[in-house]
Design brief:
MetI-like fold; 3 domains
Length: 274
């Protein structure tokens, strides 16, 4: 959910509108605030008796009685998730915004000329262009979720009961509250190994080369273009019979009137097959 929200916010920030620059700068403020302070802020928002959220909902007439946000197990989990998402969303959005701005405008122009809708341009141009950054951001945020402690400690103290005793909080409680140093050390090693295994799996899923590209070709009249993570444009070369060119096992049919070649330096390992 965090990554999906990050994509939506990045797409919004990528548009031009008054105040865009100020909004981009202000977006980083929640991420820059220390995690313990984030926990205190959101605890004030979600407090059962005099929290800002209950007060606002009651003033608007949306609730008749105050909601026990931090003393109901599933609502306490929800509150911790909201606080974590609020603190991490700015960094996710900024990183994805950088990936969006690295996609050449020529790809969007070619897609528009080809008659592609906004949704089609997103799936064929935007998503392949930001896919490497999506993998990196997903890896980073999962590691951050594994290591979240300050927010839980400041908001709920692991409660009610053990409802929000996340892994790192449980390790801390086992070590320093229960004084089971052996169990705490063993659990710390386990979480380190889990993180290492997950990092290895994500790194293995990363593209082997940033220059290798999955091409998705389209033609219109006398032009031919390809969109991909590497943002490779192609141009008409000569007339010929129907050709199929593909990379990564994804074929793309080039009509008989056109045979295309990439307009990129030859040393780039772009694989085209007939």
């Amino acid at each position: 959910m965090l990554v999906v929200l990050g994509v939506l916010v990045a797409l919004l920030l990528n548009e031009r509108f008054p105040g865009n620059t100020l909004l981009r700068a202000g977006m980083l403020l929640p991420w820059a605030i220390p995690a313990s302070v984030v926990g205190v802020i959101w605890k004030w928002v979600f407090l059962d008796s005099w929290g800002a959220l209950n007060a606002g909902l009651y003033s608007l007439g949306l609730i008749d009685n105050y909601i026990s946000w931090l003393t109901t197990p599933w609502l306490a989990r929800f509150a911790v998730i909201v606080a974590f998402t609020w603190s991490q969303l700015p960094l996710v959005a900024i990183l994805l915004l950088a990936a969006l701005q690295a996609i050449p405008d020529e790809l969007y122009e070619a897609a528009a000329i080809d008659g592609a809708s906004a949704v089609s341009r997103f799936w064929a141009v935007t998503l392949p262009g930001i896919r490497p950054m999506l993998v990196i951001v997903t890896l980073y945020e999962i590691l951050m979720a594994l290591n979240v402690f300050d927010i839980t400690y400041a908001m709920t103290g692991g409660g009610p009961g053990t409802a929000t005793s996340l892994l790192t909080y449980y390790i801390w409680a086992e070590t320093f509250k229960m004084l089971n140093f052996g169990n705490g050390a063993a659990l710390a090693v386990v979480i380190a190994l889990l993180a290492l295994a997950f990092i290895a799996a994500i790194v293995r899923a990363l593209p082997k080369s940033t220059h290798e590209t999955t091409l998705a070709c389209s033609t219109r009249a006398d032009r031919c273009w390809c969109d991909a993570a590497g943002a490779i444009l192609v141009r008409p070369l000569r007339a010929g019979g129907d050709r199929k060119r593909h990379s990564g096992g994804k074929p793309a049919l080039v009509p008989a009137a056109l045979v295309c070649e990439p307009t990129v330096p030859r040393e780039l390992p772009v694989h085209l097959y007939r």
